[in-house]
Specification:
Layout (H helix, E strand, L loop, with lengths): L1 E4 L2 E4 L20 H33 L2 H4 L5 H9 L6
Antiparallel strand pairs: 1-2
């Protein structure tokens, strides 16, 4: 079978169906290292979810009672920066 593509002649050789089935590259497998890292990431995400609500509740109570003043800080941003190594907006 011959076809013309842009002035070039190309000959196509028909192959029986399934002729290349045994020559396909193997599917990639997960390395045990990647699996361990994925498991650790999922465990950390679960831990984060279990801490989010209690942390938010504590932060709300702390800001309502202006806890930074009781600890000797003039502003919430001073407390956050010096005690938590974070900005007050965090």
């Amino acid at each position: 079978m011959a076809t013309s593509v842009g002035g070039c002649r190309q000959t196509l050789i028909p192959h029986p169906a399934g002729a290349f089935l045994g020559t396909q590259p193997p599917l990639p497998t997960r390395s045990s290292s990647a699996t361990r890292l994925d498991t650790t990431a999922r465990q950390l995400r679960t831990a984060l979810l279990s801490l989010s609500l209690p942390l938010a509740s504590a932060a709300r109570a702390f800001t309502r009672c202006r806890g930074w003043k009781e600890l000797g800080y003039a502003r919430l941003s001073d407390h956050a920066r010096e005690r938590l190594d974070r900005s007050a907006r965090w």
